[in-house]
């Protein structure tokens, strides 16, 4: 009996030692993340830069290594394949424009784990991470309706897709929630990297008495903001706080906290060694979207209270924000 007891104790000690060794090895491993940026690339003052900031935070606070790829020629598949061959623990595809290429590569490398941001995939080795952009845009719409003197506000979209409809429809809902009589005009650039086209659309809007502009158009939206600055009308940025693009023009921005989401994914990777969840959805309640500080206008106490109340009611489910256009593809 004593021999059996001693044997059990030896096995238990051995297993405990193995467990400690495994945990230590996981903690000591340097995890590597590769990211395929979307078409506008680094320096867009928006979506790409925000994701990059999240990876920088993961590097500085967690010791996670990372690198990025850009595809000016649109050949995402080639660049994603390069990331696979460079042996990253997780490869991120940023934006819906990357989806087809990411899925193509994922099928060729089923053992590689991928993360697709801003779109959903059914492939087993692709994790999907999306946002409730309509919720944050609802709050921007309320601010726009509060700030407008002409009763006309505008929205500039990049590419006309269901994702960008989230921003547009939320903006419309929020504006009409505060002022049912507000007039909203919308137009799509057809691109996320054409600042001149964004500027031209903004100029047309402004000629027709639009005095507040909001965009979901990447670098095309940069052109919109600069035209608003030139004309002396207000604008709202998107994805990150774009106040510093035009400090007398940008009233607020719809924060799409891609940096927060990317950092959380990196943290999970480091702690668990892989990502077990198949999908993530970030809205107001998860602090995935929100409003940047309001500048250049002063809200009344009643207006500030209205925004806070709307946010609470969205989180509680009392307000359901429209995210899709009727008959949209």
UniProtKB/TrEMBL annotation:
Transmembrane segments: none annotated. SUPFAM superfamilies: Periplasmic binding protein-like I (SSF53822). It comes from the Bacteria. It is found in: Cell membrane. GO terms for cellular component: plasma membrane. Signal peptide: none annotated. It is a lipid-anchor. Residues 36-323 form the ABC transporter substrate-binding protein PnrA-like domain. InterPro entries: BMP_lipoprotein, Peripla_BP_I, PnrA-like. The keyword Membrane applies. It holds the Pfam family Bmp. The keyword Chaperone does not apply. Keywords: Cell membrane, Lipoprotein, Membrane, Signal. Its main location: membrane. PANTHER family: ABC TRANSPORTER GUANOSINE-BINDING PROTEIN NUPN (PTHR34296:SF2), TRANSCRIPTIONAL ACTIVATOR PROTEIN MED (PTHR34296). Belongs to the BMP lipoprotein family. This is BMP family ABC transporter substrate-binding protein. It comes from Bacillus mesophilum.
